[in-house]
Structure formats: C-alpha cells, structure tokens
TrEMBL record:
<dbReference type="InterPro" id="IPR024747">
    <property type="entry name" value="Pyridox_Oxase-rel"/>
</dbReference>
<dbReference type="Pfam" id="PF12900">
    <property type="entry name" value="Pyridox_ox_2"/>
</dbReference>
<dbReference type="InterPro" id="IPR012349">
    <property type="entry name" value="Split_barrel_FMN-bd"/>
</dbReference>
<protein>
    <recommendedName>
        <fullName>Pyridoxamine 5'-phosphate oxidase family protein</fullName>
    </recommendedName>
</protein>
Amino acid sequence: MAVDMASDSAQPVLEELDRQECLRLIAPGGIGRIAFEDGEGPTVVPVNYAVDGESVVFRTSMEGRLSRSLLTAVPGGQVRAAFEVDAFQDDTHEGWSVLVRGGAHPLEGEERERAVRVDPWPGGEREAWFSLSAMEVSGRRLRQG
C-alpha cells in the first residue's frame, strides 16, 4: 500500500498581489491579452504591449476587429476593456497573473508621440495605437508554500 507523504505545506499557496507589485510584474512589456466587447460578445486577443506609468499601450491594425471596436467610442471618450498578463512554470506549478481594467482610447497626435514604444511582432501595418488606463489592477501569485 502506497502512503501519501504530501502535506499541506507542500501544496502551492495562492496569494493576492497589491497594485504596485502587479504593475512591477507587467512593467517589462511583452505579450498580453486585451478583452473587449466587439458587438458579437466578449472577445480576447493577444497584443504586444508596453507599460507607460499606470497605462498599458498597444498597437493593432486599423482594419482589425480590435481597432474597429475600440474606435467606436465618442471622440475623447473611452471604451471599457480589460488586459491580462500571466507567467507560469509548469514544472514548479508557480506563476502569477495580473488583470488591468479601465478605459481604452486611441492615441493620436502629441499623445502618441509621447507614448512608450511598442514593437508589434506581426508584420503589416499596426498604425492604430491605444492606451488602457489602469483604473483597477489586481493580481495573484501561485508559489510553493
């Protein structure tokens, strides 16, 4: 008969992260997922991003679903959206996940010129620049106990 020697201390621990730690984790930029309503229901797409203070900046094509959905806002207004980034290690069962919720708006003119640089991985034109203001930031980390 096999004896299970695992104890509760060997199980991963889930902890809530504060706003500052969440922003620190996503600060290097990379790939995240933007969630928005596209008229057909909730949609999530991956984007390259950079962090600018407490905003997430990303680019997309002008004719894409993401751009069309986020450009439907009243000029000067924002569209509610969410942004998620995570990093996990399958072998250790450790990692973290950060969720940013707020208003997304297109960057134009001087605001676009002042924005941090975002280099999209896909080829083609990615001339639609957006910023998502971090109104709500939450995150969790899974670590060994």
